Amino acid sequence: MEIGTRKLGPGEPVYIVAEIGANHNGKAGLAMKQIDLAKKAGADAVKFQVRTLPDAIPEAQRSIMKDTPWGKMDYVEYRKHLELDKRDYGLLFEYCQSRVGIDCFVSVWDEAAVDFMEQFDPIAYKIGSPCLTDDGLLRRVAATGRPVILSTGGSTQADINTATTILADPLAEDIIVCQCTSSYPCDPSEINLRYLESGFASGYSGHEQGIAISIAAVALGAVYLERHFTNDKTQWGSDQALSLEPAEFAEMVKGVREVEAAMGDGVKAVYPSERQRLDCLFANVAMTLEN
Length: 291
Known about the structure:
Elements lengths: L1 E2 L2 E2 L7 E7 L6 H13 L4 E6 L8 H4 L2 E4 L2 E4 H8 L3 H15 L2 E6 L2 H7 L7 E3 L7 H10 L3 E4 L5 H15 L3 E5 L23 E4 L5 H8 L4 E5 L17 H18 L8 H19 L1
Parallel strand pairs: 3-4, 3-12, 4-7, 7-8, 8-9, 9-10, 10-11, 11-12
Antiparallel strand pairs: 1-2, 5-6
């Protein structure tokens, strides 16, 4: 499949996404800074989250009170502080495309968010794990005909089969299913990277700490890799602590590219560097025998 100008699949470079999400804390200026840092760290794309409040929040959670940097407030009001202004999305998409040269797309949490984002002609949509069973949202996203990345945290195989059936109706194979565990952060024993060998998943969306597991996901066949990204993980926000800072993200990208180079084609061969060394060894043996 293709996302924007990039092909995704075996033999292609892994598509690496810096999930900024709501780590901008509702500030477009901070979002731009994070975009710049993600580009420098080697990300192929940045991703944000778009939701329509209060529709995107389960009714039971809306009145939960929270202590926040803006005072004590209910969950809906808290989320409003973390959302970008609607006008900011056009600004950020333009900034990514014209100023930075990095792909940009979003996770949509409700149907109204899809309707809003369509004006920006996004290269893809992400369906986050909490939305995998929202059939209405899946149908609305499928109707756009755009490529879809689907995270599968907290889902059964039956849930995944239903979701991909809905999405595949007009989209054929333009779907990346990501192995994902919806714990923040998640324990390595619950990550189950071997699901990437099942034939159902070809991407990985990680919530673990560190970078080793994400690099291992590439070795197991992930063609799409997504990690939360921030400029400073000590900032306020539920995703900050498990996000990668620029230096960590850059180290992960380096590891991924090294693994890609090391995978090879699976055909055993003698490399030129080996041949040169073997020739030297054989020459030394021959000289020893002559003496």
